[in-house]
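Cross-posting from the modeling subforum.

Setting up a comparison between two proteins and wanted a second pair of eyes on the formatting. Protein 1 (sequence, then structure tokens):
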Amino acid sequence: MSKANSNTGREARVEIIVGVFVALILTALGIFTIVVSGASLFGGGTSVIEFVLPDAMGLRRNDPVIARGTSVGTVSDVHYDQDGVHVEAELTAPVVFHEGYRITVVATSILGGRQLVLFEGDPELAEITDLLKLKGEKPADIMEDATAAVEKIRAFLETDALDNLRQVSDDLKQISGRLERGEGTLGKLLSSDDEVYTNLNATVANFRTMTDRLERGEGTLGKLLSSDDAIYTNLNATVVNFRTMTDRLERGEGTLGKLLSSDDAVYENLNETLADVRAIADRLEAGQGTLGKLLSSDDEVYTNLNATVANLRLVTDRVAQGKGTLGKLMSEDSEMFDNINGAVSDVREMLDDAREASTLSTFSSFLFSGF
């Protein structure tokens, strides 16, 4: 009997140990399930928000609620209605909503999974107190956007736009090939012709020599650009006279002043002139006339242009050497500068005399008008 009682007690202890082990496993499994699902073991410290979404994008219960990159609660209910998808969420953190808030659904990965994201709004704006009438916005579906993009690309490829782009690309290749081979006027200008480069280089050197002489105040034009007070005085008086003339033009006095006035006849004549200019421009674009041919892509234009650059080099060389009238103006000859300075002084005196005579005539006519 003692042996049977011993076996019975051992079996009872084994059953108790197995039961305790199973209970521990079930308890751990329950705790793990609660933690993974995001549910709270205690009901305190939570708040409920309710809002309507135009599209839930597969949002389900127990999906996480994220604010500022951290979990602040879980979704407690999602159900469809005629005005949209109603969503309830339990928040475990004190989230405060302000005007300008946003609520949307974001995909956690392309393989699935959703989370509710809360943007609280600007803290400086008014606070939203009614948390049961919030409004969410339509979520951005990556797959839907990608599908729409593919459809747009497909529609673009099915039109004639691709053929037009290919034609433009072929035309650009042909133009670049012609330029690279040195064909046409522009192609020849872009080619490695040493003659054009030599002429341009020499012309630039001559211009640099002339500007250096002007900066040093050499020659008549250089003296005009210098800091001589007599020249400044004459120019200042000339500017005053020009200002007087511009004031008369603004008042519409004289022939030129009438041309600048708001007379309709002048406007009509100017309009007709512009029409004639437009007709001339159309003829130039069509390559008609001498100037139109000069603007065309004829190779003869390049030849003439090259010869003109060579002639310009010869002219600048002569000017730099002080030859000819312009060369003498650029030279150090002070006699011509003195003559020009005297002429400017004479013009100033004439303008002053004319203005004084005009004032005297007006005063005399006013004085003798009473007799």
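Protein 2 (same layout):
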Amino acid sequence: MTTDPLLVDRTDGVVTLTFNRPESLNSIDVPLKLALRDAVESLEADPGCRAVVLTGAGRAFCVGQDLKEHVESLSGDGAPLDTVVEHFNPLVRRLAALPKPVVAAVRGMAAGAGASLALLADFRIGGPRTAFLMAFANVGLAGDTGASWTLPRLVGYAKATEMLMLAEPVGAEESLRLGLLTRLVGTDEEVLPVAQELAARLAAGPTVAYGQIKRELLAGSSGTLDEALAVEAEAQRLSGGTADHRNATAAFVAKEKPTFTGT
């Protein structure tokens, strides 16, 4: 019996994607890469999806590339690191630009590409056993899966250098202090429910505006002021044309609570 490498659960606009290889701490093999890439792609234009949760089955979030698979590929005639271009890079681009809020429920270890995937989320919820390990250098590799882009933006250049070169785990409290975690909860059992609660809150919000905020931040973090202003103008034009904007403005004036539909 074949087990699905990625579980997809839908609840009231929240789609939870669960890495489902707990026996290998959710290490990422080719079937999981393909399943995750295809799932994220399908959610881009899915009106029923208004927020996404990323999580892992069992006691770890994801420990990165499946090294057993990688060792086998190293002994073959191919180019095993082509997986970066073929699998990880397309996934990173889609996940970073996904016009829906993404919440990572980081229970246990997030290492290597698994840590990189968590850092691409808009929010990260962790528990006492949560840890991040940029493990690439431990096996003689540079970073990938967007780590060189996300990590300096979250923790600064010097700390990103330390984390990538020394490849030492960063525990839960330090992760919260550095900004790797958005929120640290009291027990590991709370991580997923709290992440899904946050995702449900976001799913009930102005999701078109959230998507445009993500677009603005991507542009503003790497472009010029004029480029950021141009993106802001376009983002406001798109957001301002939604029913959510009109209805929420009217509700504010009437001193009522707005209801958002994502349109």
